[in-house]
């Protein structure tokens, strides 16, 4: 990548803009952040941090195609930055480009192999592709790094539930709730398992717990109504 030489004064100005940029991002002022990124890139078109932060701001605005363009340019400037690969993968999942997202997560894992969230995000991409064995493998890697990763246990429960392995599914959902009692979806699916196995009082109790977590859980209200 082409090098750009700056005077000390110009370098200081870019540093001040970067400081303001991070403040605007932290405060959720994403359009102001994009404007600051453009100012920095006007001075330094190869500033990978500005491209990354521009992608982050577009992502937070739900402008995923614009975010992808910025993440790609950040990587073209410096392909060794873990955060860019990871965030680009998340953004690509929003675009339903799961294969490309998996490639990004794999790149990020090569840089930082001990981040459980990377394996979890990779598992979700496999899940959306209905590649459940690969998803479970990634979830197991997540749990090896973080045994109390509640979402990983819940997702393993979802996969087992979809495969009608209800006893295993129940075990995973209970492990999820053992970590955090406020996982409404785990309560809901335990209720579903109880109803499938004709334990209706237990099912009602679980649907009530799901509703306590989220009073607007339509599925829990609906299933409760069936068995009242």
TrEMBL record:
Repeat among keywords: yes
Position of the signal peptide: none
Regions that span the bilayer: none
Name of this chain's protein: Photosystem I assembly protein Ycf3
Organism lineage string: unclassified sequences, metagenomes, ecological metagenomes
Keyword terms: Repeat, TPR repeat
Classification via InterPro entries: TPR-like_helical_dom_sf, TPR_rpt, Ycf3/AcsC/BcsC/TPR_MFPF
SMART domains: TPR (SM00028)
């Amino acid at each position: 990548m082409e090098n750009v030489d700056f005077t000390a004064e110009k370098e200081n100005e870019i540093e001040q803009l970067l400081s303001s940029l991070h403040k605007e991002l932290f405060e959720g002022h994403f359009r102001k952040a994009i404007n600051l990124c453009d100012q920095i890139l006007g001075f330094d078109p190869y500033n990978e941090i500005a491209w990354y932060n521009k992608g982050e701001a577009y992502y937070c605005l739900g402008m995923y195609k614009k975010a992808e363009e910025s993440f790609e340019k950040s990587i073209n400037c410096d392909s060794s930055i873990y955060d860019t690969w990871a965030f680009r993968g998340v953004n690509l999942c929003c675009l339903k480009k799961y294969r490309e997202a998996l490639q990004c997560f794999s790149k990020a894992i090569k840089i930082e192999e001990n981040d459980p969230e990377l394996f979890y995000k990779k598992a979700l991409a496999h899940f959306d592709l209905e590649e459940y064995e690969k998803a479970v493998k990634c979830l197991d890697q997540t749990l090896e790094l973080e045994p109390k990763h509640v979402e990983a246990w819940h997702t393993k429960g979802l996969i087992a539930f979809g495969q009608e392995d209800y006893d295993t599914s129940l075990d995973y959902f209970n492990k999820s709730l053992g970590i955090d009692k406020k996982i409404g979806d785990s309560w809901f699916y335990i209720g579903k398992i109880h109803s499938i196995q004709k334990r209706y009082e237990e099912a009602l109790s679980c649907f009530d717990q799901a509703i306590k977590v989220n009073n607007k859980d339509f599925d829990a209200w609906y299933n409760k109504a069936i068995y009242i």
